[in-house]
Amino acid sequence: MPFSDYKTALVTGASTGIGAVVVERLAKQGLEVHALARDAGRLDDLARRTGCVPHAVDITDTSALTGELHGVDVDLLVNNAGVSRSGNILTADEFAIDEQIAVNVQAVLHLVRLVMPGMVARDLGHIVNISSIAAVYNFGGNTIYHATKSAVHTLSRQLRVDAYGRRIRVTEICPGRVETEIFGRLLGDMEEARRQYYDGYESLKPEDIADAIEYAVGSPRHVNIGHVEILPTFQVPGGLNFERRTD
Ligand SMILES: NC(=O)c1ccc[n+]([C@@H]2O[C@H](COP(=O)([O-])OP(=O)(O)OC[C@H]3O[C@@H](n4cnc5c(N)ncnc54)[C@H](OP(=O)(O)O)[C@@H]3O)[C@@H](O)[C@H]2O)c1
Known about the structure:
It holds the Pfam family adh_short. The protein is α/β, with parallel strands linked by helices.
C-alpha cells in the first residue's frame, strides 16, 4: 500500500526507543502522526522535530485513552508501548504482573477496540503490533513478559480473522534485543543496563525495527506482511535443557 493511501497514524510508546524513531519515519512519509506516551516533555521535543501530535497519557488509563482518541480516524496503528519487569512466576511481584498485563496486553486490546471499527467502516487500515521473540520462544527470565507478548502474537493473527474481507492489514514485528531504555527501566539504572545488555553486543537499533515497519506498511495493498522476526546476527533463540536426575 503506498503510504499516501494512509492519512493518520497513531504510535504508542512514542517518547523514546523504537516508538520515537517510528514517529519520525512516518512523519517523513507525510502522515499525520499521533504520538502517545506519558512523558509530556519528550513528546513535545518530538513534536518540535517531527510535527507529530503529542498525547501525554498513561496508556493503562482507558477512559483517558478513549478521550484522547476521540475524533481521530486512525489508518495506521503501531502498538509499540511495552514494559518488561524482572521475575519468573516464582519470583515476580504483584506489580510486575499487573503492570505488564495492563501495558502490554490490556491497552493493546482497548486500542484495537477503539480504532479498528473505524478501519473496517472505511475499508482501510493497518495495525502493527510490536511483540518480541519472547512471544514465540521460551528462555529463562521474565515469564510474565513472555505471557503478555505471546498474547500479542495470538491477537495479531486473530485480528486478521476479525478483519476478514476488509482491506485491513496486520503485521506483528517480533524483535530480539534492541538498544533502547527497556532494560534500564527494568533495572532502574540505565548505565548498569548498558553494561549488562549492550556493551560489547551488536544489538539491533530502533532504526532496524522502523525499517521493517516501513517495508510492511509500504508493501503493495494486496500484500499482508504478517510476522516479521528480527534478531541481531549474533543472538540466537532456542536451546534445550534436560536436567539429569536419578532420585
Ligand atoms: N528493546 C528490546 O530489546 C525489545 C525487544 C523486543 C521487543 N521490544 C518491544 O518493543 C516495544 C518498544 O520498547 P523499547 O525497547 O523501545 O522500550 P523503551 O525505550 O523502554 O520505550 C518504551 C515506551 O513505552 C512507553 N510506555 C511505557 N509504559 C507506558 C504507559 N503506562 N503509558 C504510556 N506509555 C508507556 C514509554 O513512554 P513513557 O515512559 O513516556 O510513558 C516509552 O515511550 C515494547 O513493546 C517492547 O516490549 C523491545
